[in-house]
Amino acid sequence: MAVLVALGSFVMTLVGGWTAQHVSDRRHLVLGFAGGLMLGVVGFDLLPEAVEGAPERIYGVPAALLLFVGGFLVAHILERLLALRQAEHGAHQPGQLPQVGIGAASAMVGHSMADGVAIGASFQVDSAMGLTVALAVVTHDFADGFNTYTVTRAYGNDRRKAILMLLADACAPVVGAASTLFFTIPAQALACYLGFFGGALLYIAAAEILPEASHRHPARSTLLCTVAGAVLMWVVIGTALD
Fold first, then answer.
1. What is the chain's mean pLDDT, rounded?
2. In angstroms, rounded to a whole number, what is the distance separating the alpha carbons of residues 94 and 86?
3. pLDDT above 80 (res 26)
4. Three-state helix/strand/coil letters over the chain
């Protein structure tokens, strides 16, 4: 089941890459909605499940929440390190450094692999959790596909290499989800992982997806799409729990 659902990530990543080749003026609405969905999944599903499964406190704070903050910080540190590396290599002249574009795209492939593991791990909790996490992953994979193709091309790589990196990024979630068929994560470790993943997912939504959605189109429609995404997840998760 997890692998079949992860195929949605494969398709959405390719859609994002296709859009990058034919830039659409409605991209900001899709990203705004995706950001809202991700916020809803983290706040209404991942965090409650993680705290319930790993309630042990470390210096008065639940372990799941410590890992949640850890996930946020790790995502932030990795993103900053990549930005610094690009700056050190003269990111203002991207066409001269195709290897930097390949490196950045490879980092996105690794991130997508982790997304697939998160989908598989969530299905080990229950189907409802798996589907909500998969929905968040699938929606933000549009941005992943768009950015993978864009950053590869921006640093001087030809279209063939950009498409190859896009295909690798599209396949990564499926491979990650399939890997969880060969092992079962203990319940407490799974709860901790969901907390960590929730922090990383929140960072992606707050620091990358939503700012990108509003950068060129600071419109009310974008904000409404974000709110609609969060409200939709509230309704979906609430209905699943009833």
1. 79
2. 9
3. no
4. CHHHHHHHHHHHHHHHHHHHHCCCCCHHHHHHHHHHHHHHHHHHHHHHHHHHHCCCEECCEEHHHHHHHHHHHHHHHHHHHHHHHHHHCCCCCHHHCHHHHHHHHHHHHHHHHHHHHHHHHHHHHCHHHHHHHHHHHHHHHHHHHHHHHHHHHHCCCCHHHHHHHHHHHHHHHHHHHHHHHHCCCCHHHHHHHHHHHHHHHHHHHHHHHHHHHHHCCCCHHHHHHHHHHHHHHHHHHHHHHC
Q: What pLDDT, in 10s, does the model give residues 76-85?
A: 887 787 666 6
Please identify which residue in the block is written with the tokens 């904000």: 223
